[in-house]
Amino acid sequence: MNGELRIEGAAPLVATDSSAGLPDGMWLVGDAATWDQALVVRADTSSADMRKGLALVHHLGLEPLGEEECEPDLLDDGSVRIWLVPTAPSDPFEYNDNMEPIA
After folding, report:
1. What is the 3 state secondary structure string of 49-101?
2. Where in the sequence is the domain holding 75, given as residue range(s)?
3. Quick one: average pLDDT of 11-39?
4. pLDDT tens per residue across span 56-93
5. Residue 14 maps to a domain
6. Residue 54 lies inside a defined structural domain of this protein
7. How many other CB atoms are there within 10 angstroms of residue 26's CB atom?
8. What's the pTM value of the predicted model, to 2 decimals?
9. Quick check: 84 and 61 in contact, CB under 8 A?
10. What is the Cα gyration radius of the chain?
11. What is the pLDDT of residue 69?
12. C-alpha closest to that of 39 among 15, 61, 6, 59
């Protein structure tokens, strides 16, 4: 894998610096600004490495989408792309009681 993931109709997702701490055979790819993040895992990754990788991803504030929301994708090279979401998403447009309309 060359650190780049192509998704049809979208700009390539490039591996982030956070991938350095992941076990071999795993890459964290995406663009945090657009919430497009995924964990790409080679098929031969051990279950122990998978647990380590998921723990690191969780430490970074991300978690896999549930299968009911989005199934993992099998890629052409045999690896699997698991889509991630923030564990505590913050929406800059979310209304809260401290906001006052000014229009």
Report:
1. HHHHHHHHHHHCCEEECCCCCCCCEECCCCCEEEEEEECCCCCCCCCCCCCCC
2. 4-86
3. 70
4. 988 888 899 987 888 899 999 999 999 998 887 665 55
5. yes
6. yes
7. 23
8. 0.66
9. no
10. 16
11. 86
12. 15
